[in-house]
Structure formats: structure tokens, C-alpha cells
Amino acid sequence: MRVYISVDMEGVAGVVHEDQTNPIDPRCASEYGRFRKLMTAEANAAIQGALDAEATRVLVNDSHWQMRNLLAEELNEAAELISGGPKPSSMMEGIDAGFDAALFIGYHARAGTRNAILDHTYADRILDARLNGRSVGELGLNAALAGTFNVPVVLVSGDAALAAEAHDLLGDGVTAVIVKEAVGRHAAKSLAPAVACRRIREATAKALKRRKARRFTIEAPITLEVDFSKTVEADMAEITPGAIRTGGRTVAFTHHDYREVFRAWRAMQNLATVW
Predict the structure, then answer these.
(1) Which of 69, 149, 157, 191 might form a disulfide with 177, Cβ 3.0–4.6 angstroms?
(2) Active site positions, annotated
(3) CATH code for the structural domain at 2-122+138-210
(4) In what helix (H) or strand (E) does residue 179 lie, and over which residues does it extend?
């Protein structure tokens, strides 16, 4: 069995603020250094859970910010690591039809979700992203890409809001490990990191052994709509080949192949930063 793991940071147990996840600002170095270790620990818990389920290959993709967060020297030696960026498929770099299951560790709820720690969708400039009219976050955008390779997302970990989003989008077959419950965007009741890691390991092994999750797919033709926070961001995103401007802050793209939709999504995001 071959397992793909995408690891984000905002959904890690104990994380409640941007200062704990910011690898760029020197003022955040102390807190970020602590929490990247916790991120690595949760990745290791998922890796060990996969090995407990007799996985023969585990690929881990660092999926947070500049994607250089996981401590390679502390990662379980049984896993391979994709680190750094930019990467064409970003949070899903390395996914292909050779995998039997995907895990999303340390994920968070989509932009605009109430009582969700650090809710956003890839970047704060994105107010909303919709696939065929349905709002989706990183969970949905990434799960749909895995689905094009017939790879189901069998487990996610993060806060309670992320778990609710996963069950709503992916169905009851997906296992959701809740490591914290938000009481606002920057406050939560969290499990101790060691407890969170034990639960992730145990749940991963069980989810991979039963594999009841279904792959997530979007019926073609697929229309992606993106609402930006500023009109100038939409001005730039509109340059994406095939994209059309549908509103002051909204740009859309339609294609029958979700992989092309995802490429357009990546292009829009990056162009929106250039102004």
C-alpha cells in the first residue's frame, strides 16, 4: 500500500496564531521554531500509523507557507519528503495514480468559517473559492486533485471546523481526527501534542486498513470561481489564459479536466500577488 501525506501547520494541536506559523518574520522565530517541531511530530505520527497498516511507501509533502517547515532530520526515515517551493501542484506536489490513499494532516477550515483556527484558503487575499458553485477550501481543492488520480482522502486532522467540513464534503467514509476546538479565530481548546499524535497514529492505521472513503470528484464541465479581496488582484488574475472576469473581485475559469482547473487556480493565486 502506498500512502501520500500532505502536511499543513494551522491545524496542528496547540497552534492558534499566525506568529506560531510564520517562518519569515524574525520576531516569530521562537514560537515558529517550537511549532514546526510539533508539525513534524504530527507528520511522524501519520507516517507511523501508515507503517502500522503495512504501507510499503510513504511520501510526505510539506504544504505550509514556503514549504520548508518539516524538520528533515527528525522525520521518520521510512518516509520520503518533498520540501521547498514553488511547486507546480503546491500542497499536492507528488500526488499521482501510484498511491492508494491520501492523508491531510494539520489542515484548517476554508476562508470565512466561523470558530475555526486561522481559517483561510491558500492565502488571505482569497475571500472564497467555488467549484461548480460550491464553496471549497484547501481541503476540497486538494481532495479534488487527488480524485483525478483515483486517490481517496481517507483521513484528515485539524480542528472541529475542519472535521465538519471534511464530513460534509467527503462523506462519512473519511476519518477526521479533531485535535482542537476553536472558540474564535485565534483561540482554542487543544489536546496535548502527545495525545494528538497518539490519536493521529491510531486513526491513520485504522483508516488505511478499512479504506471506506470515496474519492472526491467534480462533475464536468468544472467552473472555478475565485473572489479576491481587492479588485487589483482580480485585475491580475484575469490574465490567466482562459479566465474570465465575472465581477469586480471575481475571476472564473471553466474546463472539463480538473487538473487544468487546478493549474488555473495556481496561476490566478500567483498573478494576484503581482501589482
Answers:
(1) 157
(2) 120
(3) 3.40.50.10780
(4) strand 175-184
